[in-house]
Amino acid sequence: MNKSKNKGVKRNDTPTPFWLCEFLFDLVKEQDFKTILDPCSGDGRLTKAFEGVDIINYEIKEGTDFLKETKPISCDLVIINPPFNIGQGRRLSVEVFLDKILELVGKETPILIITPMGFRLNQKINSKRWKKVRDTYPPINTIISLPLDTFEDTLFHTEVIGFNTPFLAPHYFISI
What we know:
Elements: H1 3-6, H2 18-28, E1 35-38, E2 54-57, E3 77-80, H3 93-105, E4 111-116, H4 128-136, E5 140-145, E6 158-163, E7 171-173
């Protein structure tokens, strides 16, 4: 990929690579999850491997907008690859989605969220997001480091953050 060609080019719909879906499934498959929430399900690949589990999907292209949901949701795991930019000012869409997830499922539910590294890092000491990640959000128990070229035709510093995931190791490197 040519770095100058990639500059400023962002896809509107970036599917999660199958290998990453498989990696995440393999990490949590031994847990006894009954219901999983995927607030940005796309083609459903993040939850496809979970057999015998109730899946709650939202997908704006299918007419279900998670950000407009108002009713509490009961689930055992949230797994999400949100769009990285939804045009809400300086707030990253990951922050918008995480705030909505916590509003609807509470702060105790395990969450695996694919996110730009700038969500957690590259913050000023007085930034609102820095304070939320540090003081308001549930504990980060797991970080999964992803390669720069995780997403097709896109070079972007990305990671998976696990909130409320003490059943996972603190850190993983992806090996493809």
